[in-house]
Amino acid sequence: MWHKIGLRWSLFFLCFSIFSCTDTSRFTEIGLGNHEYEVAFPLVNSRISLTRIQELAKGKTSIKFDSDGRTTVVYNGEVLRKNSAAIFPPFPGGTPFVIDDTLAKVEILPLNKYVVRKAIFKGTKINFSGQNTVPEDIHVKMSIKELTKNGKPFITEFDIPYTNSLPVRFQTPDISVDGWTLTSSKNSMTFIYEATTSSGHKIILDQAFMNYDLIKFSYIEGYLGYHLLPIDGNFINVHLFDNWISGNFDFENPKITISVDNAFGLPVRSKVNKLELTSITGNTVTLQSPFIDTGIDFKYPSFGEVGQVKTTYFDFNKDNSNIREIFNEKTKTISYDIDAVVNPERDTSTNGFITDDNFFVVNVAAEIPLLGSVHQVVLADTLDIALDAVSNVHEASFKIILSNDFPAELSFQSYFADNTGTIIDSLFNGKQTIQAAVLGNNGRTLKPSEKTVILTVTKEKYDKLRGAKRMILNGTINTTGSENRNALWVYDDYGVGVKIGAKLKVTTD
Question: Quick check: is 102 in a domain?
Answer without folding.
Answer: yes
